[in-house]
Amino acid sequence: MDLAVDPALAPMEAQTAPQLPAGEGWQYEPKWDGFRCLAYKSGEEVDLRSKSGLPLARYFPEIAALVAAMPVRCFALDGELAVPVDGRFDFEQLQLRLHPAASRVRKLAAERPAVYIAFDILVDAQNRDLASCPLAERRRALEAFFAGLPENGRLLLSPATTERRIAVGWCEEAGPALDGVIAKRLDLPYRAGARDGMVKVKRLRTADCVVGGFRYGAGSTLAASLLLGLYDDAGLLHHVGYTSGIRAAEKPELTKRLEALVEEPGFTGRAPGGLSRWATERSGEWRPLRPELVVEVRYDHVTGGRFRHGTTLLRWRPDKAPTQCRMEQIAPTQPSHDSPLATADALVSSSG
Fold this sequence. Notes:
five-stranded mixed beta sheet, D-amino Acid Aminotransferase, Chain A, domain 1
């Protein structure tokens, strides 16, 4: 591929921070809930690369075809692949794309086509290497690049702002399409693989959950993680994830407390997996509990009605009835029409 940059380039990454940086010289962007992707075109050649450098074109043939059909000979973009479903971006649908059968991938691509949201440009349509240019210049080049393209609803320009108050609003009212907000230094070049000069603040929320079971630590007689549940409208308790990181000093007393509540079935709806007939009492298999304990946890993502990652245990909630812990807490919500996210969320609806 005859491009001004190497297609094996590692994307620039960000450091996690508790809050957005203030002061002059920052650009703020939505952090989309999708797959990071570098998109390249050089003549007839097209390449889509993941953050780890793996090829993605076979899993997103509709995006590869879109890039190939663009009326420019060459470019290199940095952005995010996402799948819009019912006014939000669905990470589970993205994961389904990573399927070994090409026929299955084509079927999914036809049913729920993906979008590509560009937020940086490394090579422009004249094959000029822009990676060494400061972000402020690259953003102007990116906007000029998109201004010269016909609208197609699938290749999208990510919003950006230099006003921190708007970015704070994105964090506070983050809708189901967003993972948080990224802050980037306007004076920095594109530093492949580096984490300095970029800060990400992730969207974090809390939920009150029933402790429907627990697991022992590997080779241990002490509890290592709590299995979390939420009730649906039919009164069924569904497993939605887990929380770990229990302090070592608290484990002996907590284990006694949990073992006193062991009782089947634990979860009456979706469960984490049945007890094996080969499992011993102290194995790593989960143990069901009477639904009496409630904990407040902090989480980032929900996918398919479950926490995508492990949660952080914030506190016990003896004041809350288990039946008050309902699935509505983690259901997708839409920001108001006058929210500062209106521009960002418009990308979801415009791609449908």
